[in-house]
Amino acid sequence: MANEDKKPEGAAAANGDGTAAKPALNVLAQYVKDLSFESPGAPGSLRGRDKAPNIAINVNVNANPISDKEFDVNLTLSAKASFEKDVLFNVELIYGGVFRIEGFPQEHMLPLLFIECPRLLFPFARQIIAEATRNGGFPPLMLDPIDFAQMFQQKMAEDQAKAKVQAS
Asked: Which residue, of 17, 34, 130, 160, is most buried by count of CB atoms within 10 Å of its CB?
């Protein structure tokens, strides 16, 4: 019975004794904000083809603060499949998540919001895209993994280049 009085390791930070809280990233909610699937040429677009269609994929990430510690992160995925001049399908998804982020230094906030949060959302968004294309009569579109760190670094480099051009 003496063990009942022992605090688990790390409990001191949670008990408000003045020590800093451990950094935490929590998913509070996930949701489909917008989903659109179009197959303008159906049923003709559903027939088999000798070659694979061209598929153009676009990815975007946006983040907006809800409060000091909570953020709404939206992952936008769109895919357009075409064969010659015909559009076979067009699917667009905005998949969101509400995240609580606390205990991280300020300089880590942008990478968390634009790399880690979309990385956590992506598998769910990928599944929704696959199901939408399959339900539309096509083979499921299984998007390749996305390097959100590279996307973030590229965006930061573009923003810096724009800032230099505007400054001169």
From this structure: 130
